[in-house]
Amino acid sequence: MQRAIALLCKGEFTAAFYMYPAIYPLLLLLLFLGFNFFLKFKHDSIIKIGLMVTTVLTMIISYIIKMKIIFN
Hints:
The protein is mainly α. It contains 4 helices and no strands.
């Protein structure tokens, strides 16, 4: 994940995605949590749960795909 963040800082967005596919949902979740700390939204709990599920599923799916590539 650190290498993906470094690639994002360099402006290499595609390379960051290939390095760690969950970087974008994770950043979106962190950005939303930061905004939600100061501004309260009507359905913020539903949005938080949706972003969390999306992030975790992206992590799990990318891990499974990488393990299949490594061990096949």
